[in-house]
Amino acid sequence: MRRYPNTSAPQANAAPRQRSDWAIVKTLLPYLWIYKWRVMLALAFLVGAKVANVGVPLILKKLVDQMSATVAHPQALLVLPLGLLAAYGALRLATSVFTELRELMFARVTQRAVRTIALQVFQHLHALSLRFHLNRQTGGMTRDIERGTRGVSTLVSYTLFSILPTIIEILLVLAYLVLHYDIWFSIITAGALALYILFTITVTEWRTHFRRTMNDLDSRANTRAIDSLLNYETVKYFGNESFEARRYDEGLQRYERAAVKSQSSLSLLNTGQSAIIAIAVTLILWRATVGVINGTMTLGDMVLVNAFMIQLYIPLNFLGVLYREIKQSLADMERLFSLLEENREVADSPAAAPLKAQGAALRFEHVDFSYESKRQILFDIDFTVPAGTTTAVVGHSGSGKSTLSRLLYRFYDVDRGAIRIDGQDLREVTQASLRQAIGIVPQDTVLFNDTIEYNIAYGKPGAGREQIVAAAKAAYIHEFIESLPDGYATMVGERGLKLSGGEKQRVAIARTLLKDPAILIFDEATSALDSRAEQAIQQQLAEIARERTTLVIAHRLSTIVDAHQILVLDHGRIVERGTHSGLLMANGLYAQMWLRQQAGADEEGGSPSPEADVADVVAVAAGPGDEPTVLMPAGSR
Description:
By secondary structure, this protein is an alpha/beta fold. It has helices at about 20-35, 35-70, 80-125, 130-135, 140-180, 185-230, 230-235, 240-295, 300-315, 320-340, 400-410, 430-435, 450-455, 465-475, 480-485, 500-515, 530-545, 580-585, 590-605, 615-620; strands at about 360-370, 375-385, 390-395, 415-420, 425, 440, 520-525, 550-555, 565-570, 575-580. The protein has a 6-stranded mixed β-sheet, sandwiched between helices. A 4-stranded antiparallel β-sheet has the order 2-1-4-5, covered by helices on one side. A hairpin with a 2-residue loop joins strand 9 and strand 10.
């Protein structure tokens, strides 16, 4: 038998690896290089804009020199200065035109990169294992995605539209100063630039950890807020509004302290940058003034050098802000890309083929499984569900019943043994085809915050209205839906909270029926229904399951008396198996559970409480004869 590695072993809880800035940029580049011709054309426009921008002070120098010469030759004013003025205007216009063309060409590149990355992260999150989603913090994760995608746009925008143009302009200006003027102009300019950049990078690197701290605290505060709002009813039940507000405010206070530190360090950065620029401009102007006095420079040269400095230091004055924003964007993207690096844990093998269900006979072969290495859940589970038959699994809470359905869906891989459908190992078929062949009605039904029609149609996207109505009728919920003012267009609210437990479960049944799977799993599918509705749906479910392979996970034994096979789990092992009558005659654990439930039903004058676990039946039987009162919020059905 082929051996498979244990891929469901929990991952080490190591701290996320911190990526270097260059590693983050290298991760981003392939998304941009898809449009390499647009990128190259945008870079060409960028260079054109900077060449035109550097040409403006040169025209201004000639214009000033020419104007100075008109004192001796006034007749020259009508020819050359007009041409220079026209050239000046043309260069200004060319700078703007090239800049807009650059942005026009690159707009699609940036937005498509953001869209591609966001979609890839979304798809990857759906591909991650159930273990990841059980441990995730939804509020913080969604905030990381939001900041990360925004960081991509910010990084590309600032790098291509601000940093790179400034660098090109600096190189052009330095080259001109070296070729045409005293070496001191180049030394002062280059020295000031080097000092400015060194100071900016050093201080900004020191400030970056403040941003990371703010991101972390912001995600934690958002997680607490969303968790509290999702559990709104629980908060109200216990009157803990003030407690939740204090917990949320604690996170906000920590964020506030980190933000104040960040702003204080920003003030230090801005002050230092302004001082460096002021000193450099003063020195440049001093050298130009000396040159004019000595006769080695004209007034036009002085204007040219001063214009160069203004053109350089105005964008350079924002370099600190831009660098800080880029570092913040990189920190935000680091969290986003770390989601893409999360191990999928359960992945299709390269040779995986679509499942070919021909009757859908189900086989568990000596399966062992543990969520954690120190605590094994299932021990040598071995049974077969022949095609078209119903097998029920019963047992006390924690015996491993629901784990069977999770393994069947391949949310996890088994540690030892195999699960097969029509002889095909689940690890050798694609997960998409596997899950398409299985339908489940869970005990805890969660609906999307959309219409009833949308939630039923979710079982088969694209289904027609007639199919949706037929599924609703089969689940005995059509008449209820029609009685609502908005009918099938009724919104169900967050997680379906506008519907009662029974109504939600019937929607879930309709959704599964619409999917029309080869294998059905009922995880206490009628637990939230009253006795009359349960009997009606139970009869319908039996009819539906007649031609399908069905696995029923049950607490109430009265719902599975007609099953072809009943498995009794106890502490992860199959301790009994057989039919209902055969297990009663064996007088083992199943018979004891049956007697306890019957005793509870007799004392209450009906069936046990739908929510009662088999482990709780003794307590029900020992209590008063009256059915316990369940308080429901106002407006509940």
